Automatic annotation (TrEMBL), chain A:
CDD domains: lipoyl_domain (cd06849). It comes from Halopseudomonas bauzanensis. Its cofactor is (R)-lipoate. This is Dihydrolipoamide acetyltransferase component of pyruvate dehydrogenase complex. Forms a 24-polypeptide structural core with octahedral symmetry. InterPro entries: 2-oxoA_DH_lipoyl-BS, 2-oxoacid_DH_actylTfrase, 2-oxoacid_DH_E2_comp, Biotin_lipoyl, CAT-like_dom_sf, E3-bd_dom_sf, PSBD, Single_hybrid_motif.
UniProtKB/TrEMBL annotation, chain B:
Its cofactor is thiamine diphosphate. Keywords: Oxidoreductase, Thiamine pyrophosphate. Transmembrane segments: none annotated. It holds the Pfam family Transketolase_C. InterPro entries: THDP-binding, Transketo_C/PFOR_II, Transketolase-like_Pyr-bd, Transketolase_C. It comes from Halopseudomonas bauzanensis. Residues 7-182 form the Transketolase-like pyrimidine-binding domain. This is 2-oxoisovalerate dehydrogenase subunit beta. SMART domains: Transket_pyr. The branched-chain alpha-keto dehydrogenase complex catalyzes the overall conversion of alpha-keto acids to acyl-CoA and CO(2). It contains multiple copies of three enzymatic components: branched-chain alpha-keto acid decarboxylase (E1), lipoamide acyltransferase (E2) and lipoamide dehydrogenase (E3). One of its GO terms (molecular function) is oxidoreductase activity.
Length: 370, 331, 363
């Protein structure tokens, strides 16, 4: 028999007088169904049922005084004696699979019969990506272990197209990595070259110098940025990566210390780099360590671009084809040679203001006669 | 006389005790409140009336002593079944379990031995006060020479307790209090023991092995049902004897499925799940499709009743671990 | 407020071997007295041999019984073969009296479990040496409970030191023995020192026997250096238990003439004068003087005894030294009644490691 005792009615009230019963012995009640009205010193209060069940007994009649904690109603039930137990043991409610009749002592038959194939975890992953069926393989490793090589050998899927090799393969990997990390922002402007000597059309040296000047004006774009550690390394020198297009692919040799070299030195340096690249004789060391990069696609085609920044660099300058264009100059329409300049920065490390100031300094230097 | 109506786990334990005591005069029961009161969870109801104080002894309030005298009785060839009221109070007896019960046979090269059973309610989730919901089975399972057994159903409680009592070496029998009355099952009072040192497969499946014991099996089985609806066919293993562990059953299952999630209420670090995970990766590295996962209680002091349920592994967490295991490296 | 309950103190022989009061009737049996003397002399000689073996690296740490030969000899003699001893670790005398072979005692302290697997018929159910302090008292209550449950006229006798009486296990055991009226005798070897902690810092109880009062059981003191007193009072306690009259605590007051163990240097914390004073009360000389006085002993008999004992002890040491190498797998063979299959691999690994060490397990 489960008894429901008069609960604490709040506000320190310790007793109540039964006013009217709403149920009687034998009634089936639902949770929250009102059992009885009682009157405290303050008010008449309705007491709801704490559970569903059948009332077996009501304690007291109208007018009787009950104290908090005294039995109010008794419900019919198993009357389980669950002991002097602390806590609340859940009673059986419906079925659980724990009461299932069947359980197997030891391993299930299908487990006992299983013959797992040993596969290197890396091989398993590769097989999944390539869609290779492991079950058909014979492993070449110890104990029939299936290795990465086994999976590769079993990969009979014809490759759609030809596999990338060497330089293009490297480009594919590097660009993917850069794209995953860098947050690129591009700002463009046109440099008006009308002050240059007529006939001077190779802008490379001027671009190198202009970039050096811009780095001096706004050193924030000549830094190394570590995205994992969120740290900046300020470079002492400006080592300019120069993108060179070859039949074998894109190379970016490095023109060292452009800030401290004169025009002639730079010109010779550029010529030497280009020759070495085309000869495929450039040492790998010369392809590393650029602090900022220039992509002069103006030798080919195109106006503006947003080339890809290679971490840990934070900026790359793009220079397009110099074109004759009608411009407004001192109130008149004139035709001037215009060099389109693009600047892409990694906004994780460089602000818009820094980029704009850099670009301004660059363009201004580029536009100067000498 | 066979019992036909369904019984809950506590009643099954009571049946086993009656049975063992009737069949073997050397079986005795001792502990606090086990006599006329029948035990605070009613596990020993009726024993005192039937077998008297000579064999069903109310001890003074002294867990160190209870454990120690069980060792002495067992050395004399009795089969004492000592009750510790809650696992939270077993610590006072640890010295006798670790320093004596576990090693009496070894240190006398078999001249003396210790066929005792220590029974105690295990685990939380019953809204009891602090210290009444402990799951520190790892402390005991670590000790060489002790057996640690955790039943998960009335029938397995009956059969495993009979086995524990009959076993010639010490057995710690941890009874999940959350399951004491919440599951009912018909139990044949046929005196048949179940094997110790053996896991039970509660559900056969081909995709994923779920390993658990005690009350956590309730949620584990529910998770298996839910995952089945998502097309993931789970095999559920009840470890039952934590020590000595039946690695063969677990390895056969994970060898077949290639995927394993271990579920336990005990705190995560240095929990028994770590031992099982180590065994699985050691023996099945080349068969695994995904890392072994553990869904466990946390490495914090188990919260009081109000927040206790958040501590225990729930069906959602088990399902999510299962799904992750199926996904493998696909994110 | 100090308890003023009187605790009896029994002594029959004083330091000079003179009777102090009336002697119990059994003292008329000269053979028993000669047996005591012979046995205590053996214990001392063997005990000194053990210390020497430790000092020469042939056994490990050893707890000497120097000065307590009377207690173990008397209590071992007072027990019957049906009774069970649950000792602590300073019980060389008791074990020898119970029939445990000297080479088994050497094996135990020499780090070999076979030392506790003795076959002495009178000690087959005796517990091995107990290191965790006072835990043996609980085991003794368990053993005594088994006697009561099976209604056997047997008694459990357990020993411990003065330090052990401070521990919970001891107090819980006294309490249980009292409330269940168990057939157990608690023998406290109060040798005044728990390593370096003197009796005065161990308890405010006027005597350790007073602890029996809280448990509602009889407690008494005896002069632990008087073998007659120890034998008499423990015999009475054992027979009381056997007759179903319940437990007794007998506190044997003595002095630890040696170090706590061979790893201890008592001169660091003990006064040399106090030690030489204590030697005056030692048990063997006392009995010997009594026997001289009774005409039962002389110098020639003493020399012969020393020779006999020397031979016996040397034989035991030889037996110990020629013990065949223990099987390293025994640690697994006796882990459980039957070794579960999955431990076989570990057992094999253990054998491999043992083999790699090569040669003697004694290092």
């Amino acid at each position: 028999m489960k008894q429901f005792k008069l609960p604490d009615l709040g506000e320190g009230l310790q007793e109540a007088e039964i006013v009217e019963w709403h149920v009687k012995a034998g009634d089936e009640v639902a949770v929250d169904q009102l059992l009885v009205s009682v009157e405290t010193a303050k008010a008449i209060v309705e007491v709801p049922s704490p559970q569903a069940g059948v009332i077996s007994r009501c304690f007291g009649a109208s007018g009787d005084l009950l104290h908090v904690g005294e039995p109010l109603v008794e419900f019919e039930g198993e009357g389980e004696d669950s002991g002097t137990v602390v806590g609340n043991l859940g009673h059986a409610s419906g079925t659980s699979d724990l009461a299932a009749d069947d359980f197997i002592i030891g391993a299930a038959p299908s487990s006992r019969d299983a013959r797992p194939l040993p596969v290197m975890p890396a091989a398993r992953e590769l097989a999944r990506r390539l869609g290779v069926e492991l079950g058909q393989l014979e492993g070449s490793g110890p104990g029939g272990l299936v290795t990465v090589a086994d999976v590769q050998a079993a990969d009979t899927q014809p490759t759609a197209g030809e596999a990338l090799r060497s330089v293009r393969r490297t480009m594919a990997k590097n660009m993917s990595r850069a794209h995953a990390e860098v947050v690129p922002v591009t700002i463009v402007e046109d440099a008006d070259l009308h002050q240059w000597d007529a006939g001077a059309r190779d802008p490379m040296v001027r671009l190198a110098r202009a970039i050096a000047r811009a780095c001096q004006a706004e050193p924030a774009l000549n830094v190394g940025f570590d995205g994992a550690r969120l740290s900046i390394t300020r470079h002492q020198h400006i080592d300019l990566g120069v993108a060179v297009d070859t039949p074998d692919g894109l190379f970016v040799p490095v023109l060292r210390d452009v800030g401290n070299r004169d025009a002639e030195d730079l010109r010779q340096g550029l010529a030497r780099l280009r020759a070495d690249v085309l000869n495929r004789s450039i040492p790998p060391r010369e392809l590393m360590g650029a602090t900022i990069t220039l992509s002069n696609y103006g030798t080919l085609f195109g106006r503006y671009a947003s080339p890809v920044i290679m971490p840990p660099q934070v900026a790359i300058i793009g220079a397009g084809v110099i074109r004759e264009q009608a411009v407004a100059h001192q109130g008149q329409v004139a035709v001037h040679p215009i060099l389109p300049v693009s600047l892409t920065v990694d906004h994780r490390a460089v602000t818009g203001g820094e980029a704009a100031r850099f670009l301004k300094a660059l363009v201004e230097d580029l536009q100067a006669a000498e | 006389m066979a019992e036909r109506k369904p019984v809950c786990m506590v009643e099954a334990i009571n049946l086993a005790l009656h049975r063992a005591m009737a069949d073997d005069p050397d079986v005795v029961v001792l502990g606090e409140d086990v006599g006329p009161n029948g035990g605070v969870f009613r596990a020993t109801v009726g024993l005192h009336e039937r077998f008297g104080f000579r064999r069903v002894m109310d001890t003074p309030l002294a867990e160190t002593l209870i454990t120690g005298i069980a060792v002495g009785m067992a050395a004399q060839g009795l089969k004492p079944v000592a009750e510790i009221q809650f696992m939270g109070f077993i610590y006072a007896g640890m010295e006798h379990l670790v320093s004596h019960a576990s090693r009496l046979r070894s240190r006398t090269r078999g001249r003396l031995s210790c066929p005792m059973v220590m029974r105690t309610p295990h685990g939380g989730g019953i809204h009891a006060p602090e210290h009444h919901g402990e799951s520190t089975e790892a402390l005991l399972a670590h000790v060489p020479g002790l057996r640690v057994v955790v039943p998960s159903s009335p029938r397995r409680a009956y059969g495993l307790l009979l086995a524990a009592i009959a076993d010639p070496d010490p057995v710690i029998f941890l009874e999940p209090s959350r399951l004491y009355r919440s599951v009912q099952q018909v139990v044949e009072d046929d005196g048949q023991a179940l094997p110790l040192d053996t896991c039970f497969t509660l559900r056969e499946g081909k995709d994923l092995t779920l390993v658990s014991w005690g009350a956590a099996l309730k949620e584990t089985l529910e998770a298996a049902s839910r995952l089945a609806e998502e097309g993931i066919d789970c095999e559920v293993i009840d470890v039952a004897t934590l020590k000595p562990l039946d690695g063969d059953t677990i390895l056969a299952s994970v060898g077949k499925t290639g995927r394993c999630v271990i579920v336990h209420e005990a705190a995560r670090s240095y929990g028994p799940g770590a031992e099982i995970a180590a065994l699985v990766q050691e023996q099945l590295f080349y068969s695994l499709h995904a890392p072994v996962q553990r869904v466990t209680g946390f490495d914090c002091v188990i919260p009081y009743a109000r927040q206790e349920m958040a501590y225990l592994p729930d069906v959602d967490s088990i399902c999510e671990a299962g799904r992750q295991t199926m996904r493998g490296n696909d994110q | 407020m100090p308890l003023s309950v009187p605790i009896s103190y029994t002594r029959y022989l004083d330091d000079h071997g003179q009777p102090s009061g009336e002697l119990p009737g059994w003292v008329d049996d000269p053979q028993l007295l000669l047996d005591f003397h012979r046995q205590m002399t053996l214990v001392r000689a063997f005990d000194q041999k053990c210390v020497a073996l430790q000092r020469t690296g042939q056994i490990g740490t050893y707890a000497s019984t120097l000065g307590q030969e009377a207690i173990g000899t008397a209590l071992g003699r007072a027990m019957t073969e049906a009774d069970v001893l649950i000792p602590y670790y300073r019980d060389t005398a008791t074990q020898l009296q119970r029939g445990v072979a000297m080479q088994d005692i050497l094996a135990y302290w020499g780090g070999d479990e076979r030392g506790s697997a003795w076959t002495a018929p009178g000690a087959l159910e005796d517990f091995p040496i107990c290191v965790p302090i006072a835990t043996q008292a609980c085991h003794a209550c368990g053993v005594a409970s088994a006697f009561r449950i099976r209604q056997q006229p047997r008694v459990a006798v357990t020993t411990c030191g003065d330090g052990a009486t401070s521990k919970g296990d001891f107090l819980e055991s006294l309490n249980l023995a009292g409330v269940w009226q168990l057939p157990v005798v608690f023998v406290v070897n109060n040798n005044q020192w728990a390593i370096s902690v003197p009796r005065s810092l161990q308890s405010a109880a006027p005597t350790l026997a007073h602890k029996a009062l809280a448990a509602g059981i009889p407690g008494e003191q005896v002069d632990g250096n008087d073998v007659l007193a120890v034998y008499d009072r423990i015999s009475i306690a054992i027979e009381r238990a056997r007759a179903g009259k319940g437990p007794t605590l007998v506190e044997c007051v003595t002095y630890r003439l040696g170090d706590h163990t061979t790893s201890d240097d008592a001169s660091r914390y003990r006064d040399a004068d106090e030690l030489s004073e204590a030697w005056k009360h030692e048990p063997i000389g006392r009995l010997q003087r009594f026997l001289h006085g009774q005409g039962l002993w002389d110098e020639e008999k003493e020399q012969q005894l020393q020779r006999d004992l020397g031979e016996r002890i040397n034989a035991a040491v030889e037996a110990f030294r020629s013990l065949p190498e223990a099987d390293p797998g025994a640690a697994f063979d006796h882990l459980f009644a039957e070794l579960p299959e999955r431990y076989r691999q570990q057992r094999d690994e253990l054998l491999i490691r043992a083999a790699a060490l090569g040669g003697s397990a004694h290092g």
